[in-house]
Amino acid sequence: MAQQNIPTKGNLMAIKKSLALAKVGFDLLDRKRNILIRELMALLDRAAEIQDVIDDAYASAYRALEQANITLGFCDEISKMLPVENSIELDYRSIMGVEIPVLSIDAPTQRKLCYGLSNTNAKLDEAVALFTRAKELTVELAEIENSVYRLAIAIKKTKKRANALKNIMIPRFEESINFITDALDEKDREEFSRLKVIKKQKVDS
């Protein structure tokens, strides 16, 4: 920076270019931050909606399981027929360069019935359906919470970089431009005065 502060027209042009790039960078970072904040707020709203229903979903599922246990006896053997959940898939989407997880799970209609109908009843079917719904909500909430965490980190970093440009780099460039401009103006005035003296001396002679 000290080399750039040498009062020459070349340095002045270079610093003006750097200042313009810094301002563009700040505008882009500020826009990115606003977009990320809007996305974060939308996810928080969705998380609040899910949180309102997920507790009820689990409560309803456990009540249905109690009814199934009452009518069928304890469903230990039947529960062993249920497959381990392995249909959850992880993908990513990008929001302004921030990788956000996208979780997907097979819809219930895509799954085969894993227990026989002869030794079960509708209460068990209801319990399975309600737990499946609770599981889907849990997967969605996990996706949202992870996304919120990633967005919050990205917003913090973006804000830090934008503040560095706004409060440090841009003022520094502006100060250098003012310094060099003043120095060049002073040099021009000195040169004008020198030429004026030389011209006067020629006239007098």
Question: What's the gist of this structure?
Answer:
This protein has three helices and two strands. It is mostly helical.
Describe the structure in your own words:
It is a single chain. The chain is 74% helix and 7% strand. Strands 1-2 form a two-stranded antiparallel ribbon. It has a single domain (21-204), classed as Helix Hairpins, CATH 1.10.287.3240. Strand 1 and strand 2 (98-104) form a beta hairpin. With 205 residues, it is mostly helical. Helix 1 runs antiparallel to helix 3. It has helices at 9-72, 76-79, 122-204, and strands spanning 89-95, 98-104. The protein is built from three helices and two strands; from the N terminus they run ααββα. The relative contact order is 0.15.
**CATH topology value:** Helix Hairpins
C-alpha-based Rg, rounded: 34 Å
Beta-strand percent range: 5-15%
Low-confidence stretches: none
Count structural domains. 1
Number of helical elements: 3
Strand order in space, largest sheet: 1-2
The first-level CATH class is given as Mainly Alpha
How does the overall form come out from the CA principal axes? rod-shaped
Largest sheet: 2 strands, antiparallel
Any key phrases for this structure?
two-stranded antiparallel sheet; 3 helices; mainly alpha; Helix Hairpins; single chain; 205 residues; 2 strands
What is this structure's SSE topology?
Blueprint: H1 9-72, H2 76-79, E1 89-95, E2 98-104, H3 122-204
Antiparallel strand pairs: 1-2
